[in-house]
């Protein structure tokens, strides 16, 4: 979460993180927060990210972008969420505004990544490292080849 873990905003070279007052000010700005904008831009630049509450999709996406087979059986290991106490929910919504806003934006990006992956898989692509290579500035062809592995099938 941004309010407690500001790595999406402040990089390791930053000497110190924000003060509590700065955090409250940015939180109060909501959608207008420069921290939210910066975190969103950094999130969009990642070749891959996962969401804990969508762990199955996250692992599938990880495997697809790194050409690594992932079959982790998370459904069996995840416990059902317990309902959050309403008084605690109010406190969380007050102090973690930026976290909720970033999560909403992350969900949209994540849905697009998953939809793109599924579309490519339907066409026979087993994995596609091109997004990772773009972020790393490694040149490659736009067409699947060395870094986008296609399943060859005459019917596709």
Q: Describe it for me?
A:
This protein has 156 residues and is mainly alpha-helical. It has seven helices and two strands, in the order ααααααβαβ. Helices cover 51% and strands 4% of the residues. The protein has a two-stranded antiparallel sheet with strand order 1-2. α2 runs parallel beside α6. The radius of gyration is 19 Å and the shape is globular.
User: Share of helix among residues?
Assistant: 40-55%
CA radius of gyration is 19 Å
Shape: globular
Strand content is under 5%
List unreliable stretches of 5+ residues: 151-156
Number of discrete helical segments: 7
**What is the average of the pLDDT values?**
77
> What string gives the helices and strands in order?
HHHHHHEHE
Main beta-sheet annotation = 2 strands, antiparallel
**Structure summary, number of beta strands:** 2
Note the gap between the termini: 42 Å
Structural class: mainly alpha
Strand arrangement in the largest pleated sheet: 1-2
């Amino acid at each position: 979460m941004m309010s407690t873990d500001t790595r999406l905003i402040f990089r390791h070279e930053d000497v110190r993180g924000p003060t509590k007052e700065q955090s409250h000010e940015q939180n109060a700005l909501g959608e207008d927060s420069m921290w939210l904008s910066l975190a969103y831009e950094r999130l969009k630049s990642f070749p891959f990210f996962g969401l804990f509450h969508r762990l199955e999709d996250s692992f599938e996406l990880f495997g697809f972008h790194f050409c690594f087979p992932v079959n982790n059986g998370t459904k069996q290991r995840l416990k059902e969420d317990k309902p959050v106490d309403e008084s605690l929910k109010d406190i969380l919504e007050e102090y973690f505004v930026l976290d909720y806003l970033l999560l909403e934006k992350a969900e949209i990006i994540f849905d697009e990544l998953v939809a793109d992956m599924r579309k490519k898989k339907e066409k026979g692509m087993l994995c596609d490292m091109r997004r990772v290579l773009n972020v790393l500035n490694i040149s490659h062809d736009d067409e699947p080849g060395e870094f986008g592995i296609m399943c060859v099938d005459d019917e596709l």
